[in-house]
Amino acid sequence: MLDRFKGFWQGVVLMPFVRLFIRLGVSPDAVTLVGTLGVAAGALVFFPQGMLLTGVLVITAFVFSDLVDGAMARQLGRSSKFGAFWDSTLDRIGDGAVFGGLVLYFAADGDSQLYLSLSLYCLVMGSVTSYARARAESLGMDAKGGLAERADRLVLILVATGLGAIFDVPVLMYAALWILAFANTYTVVFRILKVRRQALALDASEPPST
């Protein structure tokens, strides 16, 4: 859903940063790495200490690197298979850090076995959602679709966690985790069934082996 706004952010809001980094000779891959390290630090340093708002602000500041590096690659004409692989791989690390930080928060200051487990479930299912699509595409099939893409998941948990910390309403974060657990589960099942239909059709169209 939020992918439709990428053009606005990349073309208007973040373009000054894109041009600055290009002038400084910074590579898109370096921006991706620094952004991921910043997201991981924000989540794994501040969330476990109960500093949820600080963690959200740090993560938000670095998460835009995911848009900056892509715009830089296009400006430089350096789009490459490795760049796509690098970006996707580090995305998984960043996402894991965000929900891993929440797991550590609920193991300490959050003091909730239920939401610790739910955060861990969201961490795992978020990775499975991305893996299902990547694996299907490697087999020549399409597994796009579902309730929430990566950007939607990140925005929901960061906004809910940040607002919950500002107004001292932790129920916002709890509700976001339940929503994400459902959305991730639905998306994984949706993609499995979608690939299964395509696989059965492909198998049926192939001549029997002799």
- Strand segment tally: 0
The assigned structural class equals mainly alpha
| Sheet with most strands | none
- Order of helical and strand elements: HHHHHHHHH
Number of domains as seen in the coordinates: 1
- Rg is 19 Å
Which architecture per CATH?
Up-down Bundle
Detail the poorly predicted runs.
none
Please tell me what the overall shape is.
Answer: flat
Membrane topology: Multi-pass membrane protein
Subunit structure: Homodimer.
Cofactor: Mg(2+)
Protein name: Phosphatidylinositol phosphate synthase
Please tell me about this protein's structure.
It is found in: Cell membrane. By secondary structure, the protein is mainly alpha-helical. The protein has a single domain (2-204), classed as Up-down Bundle (Four Helix Bundle (Hemerythrin (Met), subunit A)). The protein has 9 helices and no strands. The radius of gyration is 19 Å and the shape is flat. The chain starts with 5 loop residues before the first helix and ends in a 5-residue tail after the last helix. The mean pLDDT is 90.
Spell out the key features of this protein.
single chain, Four Helix Bundle (Hemerythrin (Met), subunit A)
Draw up the topology in text.
Blueprint: H1 6-13, H2 15-23, H3 28-46, H4 52-63, H5 65-76, H6 81-107, H7 113-138, H8 150-166, H9 171-205
In short:
It is a multi-pass membrane protein. With 210 residues, this protein is mostly helical. It has a single domain (2-204), classed as Four Helix Bundle (Hemerythrin (Met), subunit A) (Up-down Bundle).
